[in-house]
Give the backbone structure.
Amino acid sequence: MRTIAENIAEIRKNIEAARMKSPNPEQDVTLVAVTKMHNTSEIAEVLAAGQYILGENRVQELLDKYETVDDEAVWHIIGHLQSNKVKYITDKVVLIHSLESESLAKELSSRMQALGRTMDCLVQVNIADEESKFGLEKEAVIPFLKFAGTLPGIRIKGLMHIAPYFEDPEDVRPIFREMYQLFEEVKALQLPGVDMDILSMGMSHDYQVAVEEGANMVRIGSSIFAI
């Protein structure tokens, strides 16, 4: 049996190997440990292994854990976020991965202005046009960024993508490559209020391919907790 710490060490090793094959081998890759459906004792093992960036899919689950998990933890919201839930997490997370509507952007802007703070956000892209997933179609990304970049209280830091599941991770490589091309295209535009610093894509099944194709943030849950 492997420990959580051993799993994290193996994932980091794999990330480093994949990074050397990526378009930007000098660029660091950030690991987000996805704690969905895992308890605070398991999360404590993650933190003890030096992995402090945690991602939650659901607001309620984040709220349930927030007060009991060590305050060294740095939280991201990585799942779909409803506008009426924004008020609960504005003082608890440092990055929202799933900005994908004008109504959510406006609500977040309003809440952050009231706090006198700024929230970093990624824009979720559904580049494969999967009906079961949230996110903007490719053609809508740049118009949305031009809108969101003007809103006070939020700062666009990059893009996020949830890839389709294929048994062979190699089958998703063209989709990751297309996301990276979009990322670079947006970066070249230098839109006001928009920084293309982060490309969040890749999960337990396919993160190595994602990093090879340019991801600099990966969201991994099951491979960490498989013990």
The chain has a mean pLDDT of 95. The longest strand covers residues 154-161. The longest helix spans residues 173-189. The CA atoms of residues 52 and 73 lie 5 Å apart.
